[in-house]
Amino acid sequence: MSAICGEAGRYVHWGATTQDIMDTAVVPQVRAALAIVERDIQTVRGLLAGLAERYRDTPMAGRTHLQHALPITFGYKCAVWLSMFDRHAERLVELRPRVEIGQFAGAAGTLASLGDKGLEVQEALMSELGLGVPQATWHVARDGLPETLNFLGLVTGSLGKIALDIMMMTSELGEVYEPFVKGRGASSTMPQKRNPISCELMYAAAKGVRQHAGLMLDALLAQGEATAQLDLAELQRLTDPANYLGLAPQMVDIALARPGSVKR
């Protein structure tokens, strides 16, 4: 970068520490990912709202402790699922302003090398990048990324709950089941079976994200005014859940977007 900038190259790193650059590079990626998550949450809400309305009067067995209990309707069950994603949508609106902030504070977080121009330069940089201005440096106040990942843990946990419910309803009366998709789900030895592969993938992904979310809390234990020992761990714990969530729209579409599979 310095070589490309010629004479101005000596100022490329002026006022910034590597932590500033690494963190500020991650945040736009998180912002883009959360925009996709927001879109997908709205998609899931639309699917569930439609199912809740369509099947509001379709009776089915309610289950408690994995046993048949009192009757409910499938529409009611979908409305309960929907309520989780309504709350996730609210959480995301509250989360984004706290997380989508840049980092530019210098070696010890005081902007010392820029003198009395530090805050002015910081604000101009964040404006150029379309990021929020930090209230204070978050070199070692790293609650934003753990909050993001724990939010994703909540979302995938709700997806896992839906998957588990669908798998439970597949047996016995076949109340709800995944539609047939050529090339997947058929048993290699039992032709009468149609395995709920999409639900199984959603359930497994929910468990994986939950594990990463708990480990991400280690980022809060940062010493002093600067540390880099958590950088690689943070990136890995963000990347793997992002890969899991990348499957969500397809899996939800297969598992939920086929209302005709509901038996009346």
UniProtKB/TrEMBL annotation:
MF (Gene Ontology): catalytic activity
Top-level taxon in the UniProt lineage: Bacteria
All copies of domain Fumarate lyase N-terminal, residue ranges: 7-207
Pfam families registered for this protein in UniProt: Lyase_1
Family to which the UniProt record says this protein belongs: Belongs to the class-II fumarase/aspartase family.
Record-given protein name: Fumarate lyase N-terminal domain-containing protein
Organism: Pseudomonas marginalis pv. marginalis
